[in-house]
Amino acid sequence: MSRKVLWIAAASVLVGAIVLGLKTLAWWVTGSVALLSDALESIINVAASAAALFAITVSARPADDNHQFGHHKAEYLSAVLEGVLVVVAAVTIMREAYYGFLDPHLPDQPFTGMLINGAATVINAIWCLVLLRVGKSMRSPALVADGKHVLTDVVTSVGVLIGFVLVPVTGWPVLDPLIAGLVALNVLWTGWSLMKESVGGLMDAAPPPDVVARIRELVSLHAAGAIEAHDLRTRHAGRITFVEFHLVVPGDMTVAAAHDICDRIENAFERDMDDAIITIHVEPEGEAKHRGVVVV
Hints:
With about 300 residues, the protein is an alpha+beta fold. Helices cover about 70% and strands about 10% of the residues.
């Protein structure tokens, strides 16, 4: 586990708390239902960041007797939880928008509220980019999920700011809850997408096609002396990619020679994909299926 990932996750909780404070202040100054909804979404954002920090800490634990393949999937559990929290936030925002429709009113001090909320939005936007960049580079589902959650918060705030511009200009107070309702729909869609992606990881979904293609290429290039590799299976677990396949070798090859080929393949994966765990089953020539990876 990179200490960088852990520090970013911890900083995310702090940033979320600062943004929540600013948005709460903006709502208190204006009394806007859209700003209240924005602040409610940020409360869940802080809780989700804390869950991501916990999950990343757990996933860093080494394998033990009860979890012999490690704790990497803890990050997917965090991502699912964040998706659920995003959906809860969307429903909460819709509820506040509904009550705003029943009793619409122009917000107080819209310019001041706009400045405060705008500052929170800028902070969130910058932090969103950091989370997504680091999460993707370090292959951390929890950080990527946290980044997407923060992105929904940014979208929410942008929608609120648009409403703040339109409400005083048009004199239509109903636009305040209308903007909140539209943003809630976008937040709901993001939460659903996040949960769907994370559940795929929990269900041992295969890596993206380009990763699988690279795996096949590495086996082909570094298995000289073998005949073919077949029954290739791959799955993701957090930052770890598990790779399993059968390696067919000449029937008269010694165990030591076959072991050398396996070592060469494993070393190639370690150089190219240091977060991959390889399991190779060596078979004699008679087991060849001629529909797997052709060795160069």
